[in-house]
Amino acid sequence: MSSTIRSVAASQVISPSVGPALFRAFYAPAAERDAALADPHTLAVFGFSTDAATCDDPRWLRVPLAEQGPAQIEIWQGSSPVQHGVSDGVRWSANDTVLFGAIEIDEVDGDIESAAADAYALMSSFLTSCGFPHLLRTWNYLDAVTEGDGDQERYRRFCVGRVRGLRALDEAALPAATCIGRFDGVRRLQVYWLAAREPGLPLENPRQVSAFRYPRQYGPQSPSFSRALLPPAATGLPLLQSGTAAIVGHVSQHTGALLEQLDETLVNLQSLVDAARVQRPALPAQLGAASLLKVYVRRAEDMPAIAARMAELSGAPAFVVLHAEVCRAELLVEIEGLHG
Ligand code: 3EB
To answer: Which CATH superfamily hosts domain 23-339?
Structure first.
């Protein structure tokens, strides 16, 4: 993220690079959408909140999750002009170094496994032909993610379908990811992603068992994502932190305790920053001023308390608080981040 967007403490500006930022991501009032889309450097704009307007521009993604406070949009911009279009059901935009893509697929008779398989097969074939073959980060939004019992749970079926659709599953090259539930009752899978010309470096969290090694109790197909990913330097992308919750080892912590879950989640996010700094010491050391966080909260009534605690964090990270269903019933909050 660019220091022109938010003021960054001088001690954190340790990157020796000069010149315009290659990539920046930031939140802005929803009214700025059209101006953002008019900018040729804009790769993507996301509208949260349930009343976000529709629009045909392939760079506009509507993610209907109720939001705490005034409606925000998230804007991604690069330093070179983008091309964009729609090809075979894939909405895409790309600049010299980064490709953004999005697929939305209606479930047929509530079959989330097939929808996921179709979405990931389409993504896989698009990636092999678009010049940006390396998947860095995915976001997956689906309705009612924890509905269904045992291995029929919709999240578990999603995990099965995702692997079915991926052309090749290389555990050493898994993207960072989010998989989260909407509450809108619309059985449509939304998948969007970032890809690059060169591979990124997937990272794991030393405090957590890798999701792709979760034991059988969590489902027949372990979730295919890395905890974070360092993008290739040429992209200028920040550290990409996956959806992160109060999980230590593979076990959910602080069941029923909202703020304790939030604190554990933040420890996990800082642990990912620490792991990334071993590889890229120039990254800002602390989760905070150089972080852009998306906070997903299961119970609408918890959103004000979460927002209040987030606003107190040192370094004042940018954040939005969204009403969304986390993949495990006992988890009340999950946070994903961009950092750097
Ligand atoms: C977890 O840590 C919480 O299946 O892509 C977080 C981020 C979670 C991504 C995914 C799932 C996914 O297990 C769930």
So the answer is: RutC-like (3.30.1330.40)
